[in-house]
Amino acid sequence: MLGKGVLAVQTLRAALVAVTAVTALLLSIRSAAAEENSRLALTISIDGAIGPASAAYVKGALAKAAERRAGVVVLRLNTPGGLNTSMREIIADVLASPIPVIGYVAPSGAHAASAGTYILYATHIAAMAPGTNIGAATPVQIGGLPGLPGGEKDGKDKKDGEGQQPKDAMMAKATNDAVAFIRSLAELRGRNADWAEKAVREASTLSANAALQAGAIELVARDPADLLKQVDGRTVEVGGKTVHLSTRDATLEAIEPDWISRLLAVITDPNVAFILLMIGIYGLIFEFMSPGLIGPGVVGTICLLLGLYALNMLPVNYAGFALMLVGIALLAVEAVNPTVVIGAGGLISFVLGALMLFRGEAPGYTLSWWVIGITTALFAAFLVAVLGALRRAAKGPAQVGAQAMQGLPAEVLDWSGTSGHVFTNGERWQARGTETFRSGETVEVANIIDLTLVVRRAPAATGEGGQA
Questions:
Q1: pLDDT tens digits for 58-80?
Q2: Among this protein's residues, is 173 annotated catalytic?
Q3: Which of 28, 108, 173, 290 is labelled catalytic?
Q4: Cβ(53)–Cβ(265) below 8 Å
Q5: What would be the CATH architecture of the domain defined by 401-462?
């Protein structure tokens, strides 16, 4: 019995040793994998205006970085600014990221203006390449038509101690909100809050070296490799925890936008969205006018849905959209019932609606004057063509009714006295006349009374001595 007990103890010890060895091996593998992932630096690149596509791209890329447990994420910026809503979405994702995010304005010649400055201030470490600049973060005016009161900022606004002040209350609210927002980001990351406020109120800008000296950024790096070397050993606070960065030998890997982000980038361009709407609306109009055609209806429905989806993602002025619809409806009525007033009213309504369609004037999210001009020119050409056709129809011979029947040749089918039947224009008609005609003789329609044709001898027959 004693021997069996000793054997059981030895077996148990061996099992414990084996389990300990396997656990140690798994932990070492996991530690090695974690260390390898900590050496991974993923790159996100924003080039051009910041909009819904940029926000979706950054959100997805940060989620991938968290899944792969990357060491850092380098958010490269080269943007003139963009939509306020998309900018705030990106900043919220950066602030909530469990992976340290390094903002990097690059390459040389790039800039992070307007919304780009806010995003750079939100990152854990801010860096710039030589020959780049940041700033000009003043909110743009919202709503109105260019040149009208409230449509754009007055360049003659007075200044006080805090810089240029907006003229109207709405702009003052937007500016003060933007100042509070960027100051909160500056205080969170320990950067120059006073210059950040100046960038909002006075549209101040800084070069890379000036930004470093002013404390708006942490470092200037020539390229991504130099950037990773300089941030190596720094500590940042991520999610309430202090994280020590080890990036000297990190591997750089770019995260490319997926097809959804690429599609969003195309259709959320205001000009593309505008063109999609036009194709969609007129595709449906042609489908209703010619029900047998399938193509215009299918293409129009797809384009209209894509255009409406894009408008849902953009800051749209629905009063302008309504004016556009009214203008298109009036032009459609013009095609059915041609008049000068309806067509001109539709054209004016469409142009005003297109000018008012988008509420904001953020860089990259304005409707091109070329697109508006070309579309308006096409509608004007359509209006001129309709009016020209109406004028020609008024001057030309009648195509329907009694007037259209006058002068047509007719073949006598039967005749008795002063009445009979004739065949003309593919139809059999009852006819009467002041003369007697023979079957098979060709006569001419003089008039139509109560569905009865009044016929006379054809002019060719009168030339032979006959009388009409």
A1: 999 999 999 999 999 999 999 99
A2: yes
A3: 173
A4: yes
A5: Beta Barrel (2.40)
